[in-house]
């Protein structure tokens, strides 16, 4: 469904991504692991053009197929179509503080997609029910726990009806007792067949939910495989060291 080839991204003199290739099948849950600074977040942001790589291609083959070649000078034309393919869930939720949960979820479909507000409202209410927040729709972010805010963030990302859901360390800002609610919501999405790429340190989630685990180090993918094979028999020294440290 999605083919990523040879993504390179440099910040100043710092080559952060040094040739990333990845294939993602429809319905697959891909978990990206790796030490801090290895380029995981940058890669996720490249997938929906929040960062622009200097080089590489991203192809989506389903629905409205697109191929974006970042070394092409006219790439800026392709950014909006690429961005609309995926919904992003951020570490720090990034909700609008002056909007209610419902208004946050309705924002993208109305402001960006210019869809009918009445229908969007019904869909947003259904999404908030799905993430377990039916009784919180009129509350503002400051009236919600971190876990609830993050579930609004998930509903908001779903509201644009993306083909791909991207999660950037969605539980790392949460108090430990709130982490499970968010992971359960993500598990439910995985069971529904959503295609997801998740950057996380939650090894248990990776073992239970991932179809493919990708380990990054120093801006490259050093190893990838099923969670069972990768955790039981890591091949690369960096993978072994990293997994050891997480256990
Ligand atoms: P990870 O998610 O694996 O911790 P990141 O993708 O966040 O790694 O960061 C990889 C490297 O890129 C780090 O050295 C970080 O300082 C650098 N970096 C990330 N974003 C920027 C930016 N906007 N400007 C400059 N350097 C950045």
From TrEMBL:
Q: Which domain of life is it from?
A: Bacteria
| Domain ABC transporter, first and last residues per copy | 2-243
Q: Where in the cell is it found?
A: Cell inner membrane
Q: What InterPro entries does the record point to?
A: AAA+_ATPase, ABC_ATPase_HisP-typ, ABC_transporter-like_ATP-bd, ABC_transporter-like_CS, MetN_ABC_transporter-like, P-loop_NTPase
Gene Ontology MF terms:
ABC-type amino acid transporter activity; ATP binding; ATP hydrolysis activity
**Which controlled-vocabulary keywords does the entry list?**
Amino-acid transport, ATP-binding, Cell membrane, Membrane, Nucleotide-binding, Transport
Q: Name one GO cellular component term.
A: plasma membrane
Primary place of residence?
A: membrane
Q: Which CDD domains does the UniProt record give?
A: ABC_HisP_GlnQ (cd03262)
Topology versus the membrane:
Peripheral membrane protein
The UniProt entry's sequence similarity note says: Belongs to the ABC transporter superfamily.
Q: What is this protein called?
A: Polar amino acid ABC transporter ATP-binding protein
Q: Give the species this sequence originates from.
A: Caviibacterium pharyngocola
**What is the taxonomic lineage of the source species?**
Bacteria, Pseudomonadati, Pseudomonadota, Gammaproteobacteria, Pasteurellales
């Amino acid at each position: 469904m999605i083919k990523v080839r040879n993504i390179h991204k440099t910040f100043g003199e710092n080559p952060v991504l040094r040739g990333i290739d990845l294939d993602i099948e429809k319905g697959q849950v891909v978990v990206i692991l790796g030490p801090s600074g290895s380029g995981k977040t940058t890669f996720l942001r490249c997938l929906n053009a929040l960062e622009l790589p200097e080089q590489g291609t991203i192809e989506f083959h389903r629905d409205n197929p697109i191929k974006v070649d970042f070394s092409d000078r006219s790439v800026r034309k392709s950014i909006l179509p690429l961005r609309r393919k995926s919904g992003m869930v951020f570490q720090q939720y990034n909700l609008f503080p002056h909007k209610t949960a419902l208004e946050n979820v309705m924002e993208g479909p109305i402001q960006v997609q210019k869809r009918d507000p009445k229908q969007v409202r019904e869909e947003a209410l259904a999404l908030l029910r799905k993430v377990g927040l039916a009784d919180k729709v009129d509350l503002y972010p400051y009236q919600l726990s971190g876990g609830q805010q993050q579930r609004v963030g998930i509903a908001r990302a779903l509201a644009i009806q993306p083909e791909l859901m991207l999660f950037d360390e969605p539980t790392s800002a949460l108090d430990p007792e709130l982490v499970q609610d968010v992971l359960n919501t993500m598990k439910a999405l995985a069971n529904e067949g959503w295609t997801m790429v998740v950057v996380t340190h939650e090894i248990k989630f990776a073992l239970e939910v991932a179809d493919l685990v990708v380990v990054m180090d120093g801006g490259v993918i050093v190893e990838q495989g099923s969670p069972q094979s990768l955790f039981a028999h890591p091949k690369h020294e960096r993978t072994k060291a990293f997994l050891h440290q997480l256990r």
